[in-house]
Write a structure and sequence with these properties.
This protein has 18 helices and no strands. By secondary structure, the protein is an all-alpha fold. Helix 4 runs antiparallel to helix 12 (about 300-325).
Length: about 475
């Protein structure tokens, strides 16, 4: 292979002071901008958590059938798939911050369409807009965080995305038990409006500014993030040098992702994106109320417990991310979700065998709480990994592909979940558990540890493999 076509060696361009071995510090500016961007996941959590508590009200008021409501619920993920297709390109063309503005505007329109729906088509349009917007913003926001946060703290900050998503789910489940579905949709607009305003105070990603040749703005953005008294000349030069090396190559196209130099990062990103949805988490989340009701649980108590148990586990994931690393935490997360799915399957199997209702209901209840505790603990990890492993010059194209595959499979699972659940409640969850077991093997075989490595250092891993 022509040496000029290989990835550039960025191993010395690691965003740190090589002599002192230090990493840029987390400043107040980094914390503030990261929090505003992380609110994307709060709005995503609100969109995901809406369909379960709103189910009975919408079906009653608008006369929807179960099949029609399943379509409504799954359209969030279908819309996310459409948004994922363009997410990388939009972020590359108008910037990370511009893409987030665009997504928030569409989110507000989507929530209003649902809140004032006069029929099923209003619901469809609103849900599609919610999905399209979240498909754009969930990938772009993680990319922004990966590109702006110092390496030693990047994992914890990006994992906070899961905490924010869980908080959004908890808000929808909590308010959904006491207020009508139309008012619940109006509540969904509030964080969108707040974030839309907050984005005015967030600087653009320095790495994107380097990509488009805006040197002065790159330095201004980096200075704002690192602090007025910090010397950013070395970090700015390293970002520029590595980007210049990358962009000597042609602009990335989808067919280039098949080249040997990108084999490992693309395999990791696409593999995780393909397999994870088949663990069933999106389908379970969208129809949690129906699952608890079928199992004979008290739906109000069960869903409220489920929403709040996620919060401490998501905090735990944030705290442990940069201490133990991505790889071991992801394996713990997958093992826990696998065990939770098995318990749910056993609970429904006991129900099928006509054993005491309390025994099967309790088993399903415990399994669901475990399933979502580990969902909260590490569901954001794959997105962190995907944002880290793709080199800058293919991040837009490869990221769009990975997000598209993830949302396509999530939509399929969400749509068929009710049919699969009616076919065999126990069998559905046993299938999900098998998928999680396969994912553990995939992580063991494919995933390197990226803890405390800069994006340039991670990029250098693939260069070394090619050589």
């Amino acid at each position: 292979m022509d040496a000029e076509r290989l990835l550039p060696d960025c191993s010395s361009q690691n965003g740190v002071n090589a002599e002192k071995g230090s990493s840029p510090k987390v400043t107040f500016a980094v914390v503030c901008s990261s929090f505003i961007v992380l609110c994307c996941f709060f709005t995503y959590g609100c969109a995901c958590g809406y369909s379960s508590p709103a189910e009975s009200g919408i079906i009653h008021d608008l006369g929807l059938s179960t099949a029609e409501y399943s379509t409504f619920g799954s359209l969030l993920l279908f819309g996310s798939m459409l948004g994922a297709i363009i997410s990388g390109k939009v972020a590359d063309i108008i910037g990370r911050r511009g893409a987030l503005w665009f997504a928030e505007l569409l989110l507000i329109i989507g929530w209003l369409a649902i809140a004032f729906a006069k029929g099923v088509w209003w619901l469809i349009v609103g849900r599609l807009l919610l999905g399209f917007s979240t498909g754009v913003q969930t990938y772009v926001s993680i990319v922004y965080l990966a590109e702006t946060i110092p390496p030693n703290n990047r994992g914890g900050f990006t994992m906070a995305s899961q905490f924010m998503a869980c908080a959004g789910i908890a808000v929808m489940f909590s308010f959904g038990n006491i207020i009508p579905w139309r008012f619940l949709a109006l509540i969904g607009t509030i964080p969108c409006i707040i974030q839309l305003i907050g984005l005015f105070f967030v600087p653009e990603s320095p790495r994107w500014l380097a990509n488009v040749g805006r040197q002065k703005e790159l330095e201004a953005s980096l200075q704002w993030l690192r602090g007025k008294e910090t010397d950013i000349s070395q970090e700015a030069a390293e970002i520029q040098d590595c980007n210049q090396s990358l962009y000597k190559q042609p602009i990335s196209r989808f067919q280039e992702l098949l080249e040997t130099r990108y084999a490992r990062p693309v395999s990791i990103g696409v593999g995780l994106s393909f397999l994870l949805p088949w663990g069933g988490s999106n389908g379970v989340l969208l129809y949690a109320s129906s699952i608890f009701d079928t199992a004979g649980c008290n739906v109000g108590i069960a869903t409220t417990t489920m929403s709040f148990i996620q919060i401490p586990f998501s905090v735990l994931g944030v705290l442990l991310m940069d201490k133990f690393g991505r790889r071991p935490l992801l394996m713990v997360d997958l093992a826990g979700a696998c065990l939770g799915g098995l318990l749910i399957g056993v609970g429904f199997l006991l129900q099928d065998l006509k054993l005491p209702v309390d025994l099967s209901a309790t088993t399903v209840f415990v399994g669901m709480q475990m399933f979502f505790a580990f969902y909260a603990f590490g569901a954001g990890l794959p997105f962190v990994i995907i944002a880290e492993v793709f080199p800058m010059n293919i991040k837009g194209t490869a990221g769009s592909l990975a997000a598209f595959i993830n949302y396509l499979n999530s939509w399929i699972v969400a749509y068929v979940f009710n049919f699969l659940f009616k076919w065999s409640s126990a069998g559905a969850f046993f299938i999900f558990s098998i998928i999680y077991a396969l994912l553990i093997l995939f992580v063991l075989k494919m995933l390197p540890e990226t803890k405390k490595k800069s994006l340039e250092e991670i990029q250098a891993l693939w260069t070394q493999e090619v050589h």
